[in-house]
Amino acid sequence: MIAIYLLFILMLAIFVGFELIQKVPATLHTPLMSGANAISGITVLAAIVLAGGESGEAATVLGIIGVFFATINVVGGYLVTDRMLAMFKKK
Amino acid sequence: MDITIFINIIYVISAALFIYGLKLLGHPSTARKGNRLSAIAMLIAMIVTLLDQHILSYSWIIISVLAGSAVGVYVSKKVEMTEMPELVSLFNGVGGLASAVVAIAAMVGSDLTAGLATISVIALIIGAVTFSGSLIAWGKLSERISGKPIVFNSQAIANYALIGVTVLFSALYVIYPSSTLFICVVIALALAIGVMVVLPIGGADMPVVISLLNSYSGLAACAAGFALENNLLIVAGALVGASGIILTNIMCKAMNRSLVNVLTSGFQEVVSMDIVVEGEIKPISADDAFYVLEAAQSILVIPGYGMAVAQAQHAMKELQELLESNDAEVVYGIHPVAGRMPGHMNVLLAEADVSYDLLLEMDEVNQRMENFDVAIVIGANDVVNPAARELKGSPIYGMPVINADLAKNVFVIKRSMSSGFAGVDNPLFFKDNTRMIFGDAKEVLNHIVRQFTD
3-class secondary structure for chain B? Predict the structure, then answer.
């Protein structure tokens, strides 16, 4: 049953995503993409659980590596998006 | 309260913040706030995840987070705005890599049931394809490898075989989930697929590829979410996946091509154009262009990738101010595929401090094209090519373009006479109302600016 609940969540999230992102103006498409980069770093959560768990040494090491890469995306993605959005001004 | 329930409640709040953050991204005036909300959502999700009772040791996790943050901060401060396509491409790749690594960790951590093994191997494949594909895209964008399509004989057959073998070994892994060998083979094959898919795609098609890989990096996170039964991963991954697919679709439409057509572009015969475009090129010096601009009332600027290469956005902004103080109206017409990624031109002009309400979309400027006294084309070619409208048989026929040729006067700033990325001659250069200004875009614009200030 868990798989079915997760599919439900997936379906709803996809619809929300389509609705919201269609409204993002073309001007903001580059920040949208770099912001999406940051959000895709959400994998960091799974990596944290695997890195801290006791599923064996290999899983722990891979988890730690995963945390490193996902954090690059999260931090780098949000900061560079913020840097870009700060430049969009109306006079 | 059970800690697991607490964590999940925070995940729900986090998901709501991600969604609201994306909503605020719908307008330039609120977008920055939206991005911050999204960052806060990520931060609280990371913090509560550390409370998970399965986590026994923190030291390495903290070290890893700090190291990743340091790299992220460094990269985000150092990158030039013109390099954004490369950076987004790299981030796509790193995101895919993280998901692939997480999938492998789940696979080697314990013997998975058939269902979990299937979804884990899917996460691994999407992640690995995204990683290697993005590295190739990055190489092409930064010109470390040739931007031309790289094709060889029977490439299509090789690709189908590759995909078939990957499916075969994935199935073998699902049947024997304790086999590390099968995992390694699948990793190698998936990496090869990413390379093979992106190599045959040319430079002008990069906006499509980057958008698609952006989508994949989200789908990889989404699949990892299924493998680990984490609903926040699914929500966030789906949002990214949807975003990438919408952008991919917009880019394809703007090029009048289907996604399949772009992805298989390397497999097709090169369309050769039989029609020879002929006419007389009428060059004009920057000095003479100045006199026309001085008399003009309304001016349209159409930037392309050449503006990014020449870093001419600041010079253009300077010229814009001078023209405005000369009582002329200046607006920018931005084609969806101008540049190397969606919104590339907008970011460069924003960097040069151009107000975003002056950045108009293609349809908006086309409606009033006849009223512009001068259209200045800076380093754009295919996106202003009237062949798309009037030359049946041209490879770009049917593509929506900015109809610069319908303006009263057209200035094309161009380094030399060569065809655009699509390899198509541009009849715009031969029109009666077109004047070519040859030279580096930045130097030409600075020259006109000096004329104004003298």
Answer: CCHHHHHHHHHHHHHHHHHHHHHHCCCCCCHHHHHHHHHHHHHHHHHHHCCCCCCCCCHHHHHHHHHHHHHHHHHHHHCCHHHHHHHHHHHHHHHHHHHHHHHHHHHHHCCCCHHHHHHHHHHHHHHHHHHHHHHHHHHHHCCCCCCCCCCCCCHHHHHHHHHHHHHHHHHHHHHCCCCHHHHHHHHHHHHHHHHHHHCCCCHHHHHHHHHHHHHHHHHHHHHHHHHHCCHHHHHHHHHHHHHHHHHHHHHHHHCCCCHHHHHCHHHCCCCCCCCCCCCCCCECCHHHHHHHHHHCCEEEEEECHHHHHHCCHHHHHHHHHHHHHCCCEEEEEECCCCCCCCCHHHHHHHHCCCCHHHEEEHHHHHHCHHHCCEEEEECCCHHHCCHHHHCCCCCCCCCCCCCHHHCCEEEEEECCCCCCCCCCCCHHHHCCCEEEEECCHHHHHHHHHHHHHC
